[in-house]
Amino acid sequence: MFEHLITGLVTVISPTNLLFCFFGVTMGTIIGVLPGVGPVAGTAMLVPFTFGMNPTTAIIMLAGIYYGAMYGGSTTSILVNLPGESSSVMTCLDGYQMGRKGRAGAALGISAIGSFIAGTLSVVGLMLLAPPLAELAIRFGPPEYFALMTLGMTLVISLVGESMVKGLISGAFGIFLGTVGMDPTSGIERFSYGIPTLMDGLSFVSVSVGLFAISEVLEMSESSSQPPAYIDKISNLLPNKEDWKRSIFPILRGSVIGFFACSMPGAGATVASMLAYATEKKISKHPEKFGTGIIEGVAAPEAANNAATGGAMIPLLVLGVPGSGTAAVMMGALLIHGMRPGPLLFEKHPDFFWAVTASMYIGNIMLLILNLPFVGIWARMLKIPNSLLIPIILAISSVGVFTVNNNLVEVWIMLLFGIIGYFMKKFGFPAAPVVLALILTPLMENALQQSLQMSHQSLSIFFNRPISLALLIVAMLSLSSPLVRVFRAKTKKS
Amino acid sequence: MKKGMITACILLMGLSLYGIIESSRLERTMQMGVGIAFFPLSMSIAIGGLAVLLLVGILKGRIPVKEKPIFGEGGFPRVLTVVGFLLGYLILIEAIGYVPSTFLFFAAMVYFLARDRILKTLLTSAACTFILYAIFRLWLKSPLPTGLLGL
Fold it and tell me: Which value does ipTM take for this structure?
């Protein structure tokens, strides 16, 4: 394993990879700091930047954006009580209160150091868990893959968003969109109406940039006012002895919770940070102090949302099933680069996996340096007016989507999905299942066709094989869990 | 919000109907396995069924809908204007190319959103247009739309 890691490190320390790792983490920090622009939108928007790169450099940069955003998100939570991205919501509770008590420096410091510890631990976890899991997954045939993708989708649908019905509608809509274009087996066109751009299916870049970036910008443009950014001089970033004593165990617990929560598809960094905060509150001797500005309330959720990034790489790289919106965008980017994430990735391109893993160690060190001494610079980013940010995001998105295939029709598709995404947000339909389903549907359809060919068109193949059966049972359970909750609540009432 | 949700459900039912009709046409060309209509047809039925479920839930009050209006005061006209500017940008970029259309887009957007002084708006727009040109054309070597003016 260490030999592989060293090979990976050698790949990463090439000037190009180091430069794009730095670019990724810097962009990630900016995206995390700016409220309204989340990691999914940021990653989707910057995918076109990777097209001239080799796949390893591309994913090093995109992963850097992902975990960089987790670091940056805490800055706005602590300084202006506005989460830069959704997984920093819990940090607002105690981080902002610490800032009001004049301890913003300590909160930012423990957030950066905790994020570094958690990020590094999660990469260790990824290194230890990924190879044996890949060894197990390599035995998967088409039925197991079909069941696994079904499970991934149902978990994301059941855990994302406010309502299961809306999540299911989003998922079904995504699957429907995934069928646009030429059928991979028969070569027959579906819903493309002779439009050349649609023959290869809807471009995932157009759809994801539209659903995440454009919709967010449209929401930002609704209000003419901008939240005020009170940024004083930030000092005393290094936590004192007492801070350390109170934070170290929450950081470690947050790391474990974040990593394992996100190593399964569905639970994103936001769920992980909420779980970590709730756990700390539950085991604390003074739960009433949470929310008043205590350092444990910053350390645990920040550790959890950073550990989540390493955990999220497991379903993505090892199983080929992205567990969140950002992971789905990264998977789409990998597919465009001709890399199919999954257990075969280990066999065919071990250098790729280990280079990405090694880059995460280096990226975390870069982020610690960027986020401790330079935190003041990031805080000043909050002063960028929306009147400038909105046209910049719109122009980068439009030009970026155009450069994918030099095709303006794809930019029109982006705009259409931007409007759809905006209304989806308004009515509480989650967008992540749409992109996830759009990416997974061609693979699922292929796996289903292959499975049925293996079994001479009998569906029993999915129930005769233990792994496939187990995965489908878990998928059914995840879908039926809200019904069980409703039934229990009714029984209790009666 | 309730009216909006009901409209959304009706639109989803329309999408479902469209999917069912179009997928049924595909079914006739079925050649192997579960057929190319399996996914679109089953998903169209699922969207329709779930939309009906959602609509019934909302009408019977089982699914809570926020009371507050969908858009804040003046929010929707601003969103419409931004969409309008973006539409104009996409039309212009094809006709006159990246440089003039991006400059005009930035100038219009910054002026609309900030109401800054004209000179400041023009300078900001020129700077943003150049920075994006430098990133995409000079650094990433991506071809940009040139239009009739060749810019």
Answer: 0.92
Are A409 and A417 in contact by the 8 Å Cβ rule? The answer is no
Q: Tell me if A21 sits within 8 A of A363, measured CB to CB.
A: yes
Contact call for B109 and A173, based on CB within 8 A: no
Spatial contact of A55 and A334, defined as CB atoms under 8 Å apart: yes
pTM greater than 0.90 (yes/no): no
Closest CB from A49, A402, A452 relative to B145: A402
Tokens of A81: 């009580």
- Ranges of chain A whose pLDDT falls below 50: none
What is the enclosing helix (H) or strand (E) of B13?
A: helix B2-27
pLDDT tens by residue, B20-34: 998 888 765 555 557
Q: Which of B32, B43, B102 sits opposite A175 (nearest CB)?
A: B43
Taking CB atoms and an 8 Å limit, are A176 and B75 in contact across chains? no
- Cα A368 from Cα A71, distance rounded (Å): 9
Partner A contacted by B29 (CB < 8 A)? yes
What does the alpha-carbon distance between residue A184 and residue A442 come to, in Å, rounded to a whole number?
A: 7
The two three-digit tokens of residue A351, written as one number: 């250098």
Closest CA relative to residue A266, chosen from A70, A475, A38, A441: A475
Q: How far is B102 from chain A (nearest CA, A)?
A: 7
B53 touching A (Cβ < 8 Å): yes
Query: Per residue in B77-128, pLDDT tens?
Result: 899 999 999 999 999 998 898 999 999 999 999 999 888 788 989 999 999 9
Residues of chain A in contact with residue B82, where contact means CB-CB under 8 angstroms, are: 217-218, 221, 390, 394
Both tokens assigned to A439: 């990416």
Provide the pLDDT for residue A57: 92
Looking at the partner chain, which of A400, A412, A448 has a beta carbon nearest the beta carbon of B34?
A: A448
Q: Are strands A181-182 and A189-190 parallel, antiparallel or unpaired?
A: antiparallel
By CB atoms closer than 10 A (0-12, 13-18, 19+), residue B18 is: middle
Q: Which of B8, B94, B110 sits opposite A388 (nearest CB)?
A: B110
Closest CA to B17 of B51, B56, B63: B51
C-alpha A306/C-alpha A294 separation (Å) is 20
Taking each helix axis from N to C end, the angle separating A39-46 and A325-336, rounded to the nearest 10 degrees, works out to 10
Structure tokens at B116: 């800054």
